[in-house]
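Supplementary material to the annual report.
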Amino acid sequence: MDFLFQSILNGILAGCIYALFAMGLTLIYGVLNFVNFAHGELIMWGAYFLYFLMGKPFGFPLPIALIPALLLTILLGIGMDRFVFKPLRTANRLTLLIAALGLSFLLRNGAQFLWGAELRTYGFEIKRGLRILGISITLNQVAIILTSIVCIVFVYLLFHRTRLGKSMRAVSDNLELARVMGIDSKHAIQFAWVIASVLAGVGGILLALDTNLQPGMGLINLVKAFAATLLGGVGNIWGALLGGIVIGLAENLGVLVISPGYKDAIAFGIMVLMLLIRPSALLGRQE
Amino acid sequence: MKRIVHLILISLGILIFINPSASAQDTYKIGAAFALSGAIAVYGEGFKKAVDLAVEEINTAGGIKGKKIEIVYEDNKSTPKDCVTAVRKLVAVDKVPILFGPAGSSNFMAAAPVAQESKVVMLSAQGAAPALTKAGEYIFRVFPSDVLQGKGISDLCVSLKYMEVPIMYVNNDWGLGLKNVFVENFKKAGGKVTDEIPYDDGKTDYRTELIRATKGNPKAVVNLTYITSGAVMFKQTYEMGIKTQWICGSAAKAPKLVELAGKAVEGIIGTYPVFSQETKEYNAFRAAWKKKYGDDKVPIFGEYNYDMVYITAKAIEKGGYTSGGIQKALFEVAKGYRGVTGDKTFDQDRGVGSEYGVWTVKDGLIVDYKK
Amino acid sequence: MDLFLHLCVMIIIYIIFAMSLNLEVGYTGLFNFGHVAFFGISAYTSALLSLQQVPFELSLLIALAMAGLWGFLLSIPSLRLRGDYFGIVTLGFGEIIRMVFQNEVWFTKGPMGLPGIPKPILFSYRFATLSQYLLLTLGFAALTFLILRIILRSPFGRVLRAIREDEVAAEALGKNVFFFRIKSFVIGSLFAGLAGTLWGHYTTFISPGDFTLLETILVLLIVVLGGKGTEWGPVLGAFVLIFFQESLRFLRLPAEWTRYLAPLQQMIFGGLLIVLMIFRPEGLLKEKGRGSNAGN
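Predicted assembly:
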């Protein structure tokens, strides 16, 4: 039975990471109404920023490097919007989608240009996990679960309890109407990017702490995050968490039964199946 | 419409303008379609270093009959499609009679028909798939085929009395090919393969695959892994507190693995095509490497690439700078040739034999395994 | 010269591939991000049949039928979805098909790939050398071009464009949008299959590594760069892009730079896409009778 519990834990861990990514995606989708294909690269750069600050010539310890790394990620997110998506605000969907795809390509290869394609680590010593009830869990993993919950609660409160959050929701419901009502839509959009970047940065760093850094790390997980977003309902914060965990569990438990060669197909399979069976029920908000 | 025609004409013009035969024939050019970018660029850079070392030595010693060797590197981007283009370019533009083929059996096999069809000799210094040289008489390998290594791993399991093992393997040509040979041999020897787990290289999370492999606490797990996936897997095994004896293949035997995974790889064992590191050829090679690159970190399969350059130089010297001449001379010069990696005599399938040894990681160093 | 012919063959295969995607993306407005799946299905079908000594004419037909069939099967459920979701489902389909090539070893030989695919013999003429093969691909490309031209200039083509511009209006005119989209998707898949078949018989070796997401991105870039929704766009796009990519080989840069060159080249690709989308979203060639900023 131990291996079953351990797999469930792994599923939840993977799910938390997917959920962090999915929340960022869903936020941008909610406010700007397009799928940001470059979100994965925001994740990856977040992790690499920390790597950069912890390495030579800075050599900051982790807690000190964390804040500037997140600030840099925010800067990148805002920059993405300012230079790529803002000029395309009125463009059609295909144009936006292709621009996002291009941005993803640019940023991914940018990281490869600077750091090469090989795996990197933050260089912490490997530690054995704690053993609780026959399953082992490392401190990093505890941090992943706690951080995701904190992030989700934070975003939820922000959205539903603050003025700013309400204005963001208003913008996402209807940009024109929000403008008429005197809501500063520019401010709201910018704020959405800040939150999405922080979520991406935190998620990327946690993922890299738990595993490794690699230019492709964002892209691989982004597809899962897509699936989680769709599963939980676009624009739905709790849905992102739920969707992420369902995908994470399905993947990790599925591997015990089917050939692991199809591990990545599981998320796709669930997504396609759900979209086909009940598209309207799942996508919290239809176009 | 007019503009399209113009654009196409201009591009054609530029293509024709680039005159490939401009450089005079004052060197012997050898092609190298290496993975300098893409998924397996980690390996490609190492191969290149080894080839460069051998070329430098040959050229300082006066080259071949006074002429120097020049390697024309062409990036194959680690994809079959670009391997074909890279080899085409070397054959058609640089007009090399001999070239060093891409690493990765499927990449090599995609390009092999091009070399065979153009009657240009193509050598592999790291391809392990048994079918590698099937494309024709111009395709050679200086690296032993997997048939031998698969048996080596099976023998190792049997000798350590691990008669029931699950097997994990990288889901590519190398992993699958080696797995098949292993399973066949292991069953013949009375062993039982309890589970087969393929996985993709280059992922960040293998925990569930590892849990499935170690279900029921097997005494040993065979894992045919690469450097990158191996590093992640052993780290995660360590974190989860899984205790089992890992048995690997040759592709994981690299200092980089230890660098990435630290104490998590302590005690893993694996097989590799063995050649004595006590010979005078090997000592000379090691000294030369240290002198040029300042470290002892000879990359994986570096020695084979080094030998490949020497055999090629000898074949050009004997058979002349034509592909037909080199093709014939290769058999003669390699016969009984003792390189860094031992005897390089080609068999009738244009491959070489080898013995297999066992390596292990001890105190952060890769050393020969002793029971 | 051989390299030149080789590049021409590659370019022409990509032209066919891009023309088929152009029908979907450019004319019908379907965001197909898994187009490589149909390219792959046909390449494998035809290769497997040819290796069983099935004549090329027959295996080509079966390969095209398979691509069309799978296009049909995928389109029925997924075309009910719109825009981005359709894109994601097709992307997923493309990846799953690649995984099937990779994992169903008993059938496709998995990662070992299929070597020794015979060169095509069409009406007892063998297209073996580079120039012969170039002729063959040229012939097929011309055929594709003409067929698509006829289709798109017919009333059917006009309906497709109408759907792209305004789905509701097309529906109001009594057109069954769903069926028109399915037809467009199936035809697109069929021609992608043609490109795939030609590719397999050209390289004589295929493996799952040939059919990745990167291929879809490359062909999408060709369509967008050339000018989506134009007849000559894919031709121009394929030419410019592949030429640009391969001409870098001739720059004679030191091999040490290659590590930087490859990512740099891809960065240029990505950057180019962004710049194009911002400043010239219609591509190099502009579709006639369509405003520069027509939205849908």
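The first strand of chain C starts at residue 121 and ends at 122.
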